[in-house]
Automatic annotation (TrEMBL):
NCBIfam families in the record: NDP-sugDHase (TIGR03026)
One Gene Ontology term from the biological process aspect of the record: UDP-glucuronate biosynthetic process
PANTHER family linked to this entry: UDP-GLUCOSE 6-DEHYDROGENASE TUAD
Family according to the record: Belongs to the UDP-glucose/GDP-mannose dehydrogenase family.
Stored InterPro entries: 6-PGluconate_DH-like_C_sf, NAD(P)-bd_dom_sf, UDP-Glc/GDP-Man, UDP-Glc/GDP-Man_DH_C, UDP-Glc/GDP-Man_DH_C_sf, UDP-Glc/GDP-Man_DH_dimer, UDP-Glc/GDP-Man_DH_N, UDPglc_DH_bac
Domain annotation UDP-glucose/GDP-mannose dehydrogenase C-terminal: ranges: 317-418
Protein name: UDP-glucose 6-dehydrogenase
E.C. number(s) listed in UniProt: 1.1.1.22
Recorded catalytic activity of this chain's protein: UDP-alpha-D-glucose + 2 NAD(+) + H2O = UDP-alpha-D-glucuronate + 2 NADH + 3 H(+)
Length: 433
């Protein structure tokens, strides 16, 4: 099949590379010229394991093409996947300006029956506006479908090839056939439904994942008050097959380009339809509280009691900037909020992340960055763990002890064993234990 993928970001580029690898002819369109020029030379603009190999291999095989020009791609395609960003506005609502711009350009270039499948996460209720936008420009038949994306950054290729499910939001048999044929080589349960249900599946799934994280965080706060160990409690809770272990981990809160924005957009969307999703408002509130609780621990460990400049003169190492391991994405990452608080309180921050330092430099040009994890902690008053990269778990505790000025670990991801580190003479602050 010949396809156009609109948007060469985390979702679009992975989708384009995987569909090309499965034998389709794929055109990937993006409006950012430098990105497209780089991709033509095999330069992937973000870190995602194996993606560069996929991009290089499929361009060489002449199955994958990059362009800024919709007219080079859309007229040849049977299906167009819209994968542009849907970031939050200030009020939490999804900003659909990129989506409408992409759909308009697609409409102007349609030729013959084309399925326009929306992969971006978009709120329910815009079907009529999208349809009207296309009708204004299109001279041929078209249909809309929703094919929400569930990939996780860091394992995006694997997730695209072996997803738990493929949601096919399309009502006509013709549109369903296009999507089913295209996904035929990919494993996973097929959920065939109408467009609205497909979009709702995506929001509901992310909202439930966020709810699990906030539940774990609320339980952690309670464990600290009760003198229980949240890690043990959640091991016992998650062992129940009806519940499961995944996403039941306390920490500095969920972040990234999806969960925070999708929770807020879902609350907004529910409100629009006359439902007050107060459960999700609490999920969001618990998540925001995790940053303050973490900073509270830093102040307890190092603070001088001063309200506004409570960490003045203190040197801290922040380990981990990406919102999770195996990505360089710092969109809505807890690290950004943590560093903002630390800097406001007067701390001198030295940060280290295996992949995300280039992105962090754009937001925090003034803090220090270390070339490796041991250099980051040398001479610091405390070591703060904000992202659970495996190289942090594997650090030699005796070396950490020698390098830190004061043996203080504030572990925002519970990667260390409290008994072991305390036994070595560290002052240790975890989450919920
Ligand atoms: N990142 C994830 O892990 C993930 C997972 C599932 C779903 N999603 C959803 O998928 C969508 C895309 O997310 P992302 O992380 O890939 O975004 P992204 O910001 O990484 O990529 C979006 C791309 O679209 C391009 N673009 C913007 N307007 C365009 C236009 N008019 N024409 C062509 N290209 C245009 C941008 O230049 C950018 O390269 C969002 O709705 C997101 O919520 C993301």
């Amino acid at each position: 099949m010949t396809l156009t993928i609109v948007g060469a970001g985390y979702v679009g580029l992975v989708t384009a590379a995987v569909f090309a690898d499965l034998g389709n002819r794929v055109f990937c369109v993006d409006i950012v010229r430098e990105k497209v020029e780089g991709l033509k030379k095999g330069k992937v603009p973000f870190f995602e394991p194996s993606l560069t190999e996929y991009v290089v291999r499929n361009q060489a095989a002449k199955r994958l093409f990059f362009t800024t020009n919709y007219s080079e791609a859309v007229p040849k395609s049977q299906a167009v996947f819209i994968c542009v960003g849907t970031p939050p506005k200030n009020n939490g609502e999804a900003d659909l300006s990129y989506l409408f711009a992409a759909v308009e350009e697609t409409a102007k270039n349609l030729s013959g029956y084309t399925l326009i499948a929306i992969k971006s996460t978009i709120p329910i209720g815009f079907e009529d506006d999208l349809e009207a936008t296309v009708k204004k420009y299109a001279k041929t038949k078209f249909e809309f479908g929703a094919c929400p994306e569930f990939l996780r950054e860091g394992t995006a290729i694997e997730d695209t090839l072996h997803p738990d499910r493929i949601v096919i939001g399309a009502t006509s048999k013709k549109a369903q056939k296009v999507l089913l044929e295209l996904h035929a080589p990919i494993s996973g349960e097929r959920i065939i439904c109408d467009v609205r249900s497909a979009q709702l599946i995506k929001y509901a799934a992310n909202a439930l994942l966020a709810t699990k994280v906030s539940f774990a965080n609320a339980l952690a706060a309670l464990c600290e008050k009760m003198g229980a160990d949240v890690k043990k409690v959640l091991a016992g809770v998650g062992a129940d097959r009806r519940i499961g272990h995944s996403f039941l981990y306390p920490g500095v809160g969920y972040g990234g380009s999806c969960l925070p924005k999708d929770v807020l957009a879902f609350i907004h969307l529910a409100n629009h339809f006359g439902y007050d999703f107060d459960l999700l408002r609490s999920v969001d509130a618990v998540n925001n509280g995790q940053i303050e609780a973490f900073i509270g621990k830093v102040r307890t460990a190092l603070g001088n009691g001063h309200l506004k400049r409570g960490l003045a003169g203190k040197k801290v190492a922040v380990l981990g900037l990406a919102f999770k391991p195996n990505t360089d994405d710092i969109r809505d990452a807890p690290s950004v909020k943590v560093i903002n608080h630390l800097v406001d309180l007067g701390a001198e921050v030295t940060a280290y992340d295996p992949q995300a330092m280039a992105n962090a430099r754009k937001i925090f040009p003034k803090i220090k960055y270390a070339p490796n994890v041991y250099k980051a902690i040398e001479g610091q008053d405390a070591m703060l763990v904000v992202t659970e990269w495996s190289e942090f778990r594997e650090m030699d505790l005796s070396v950490i002890k020698k390098l830190l000025k004061r043996p203080i670990i504030i572990d925002g991801r519970n990667i260390f064993d409290p008994e072991k580190v305390k036994g070595l003479g560290f002052k240790y602050y975890g989450i919920g234990r």
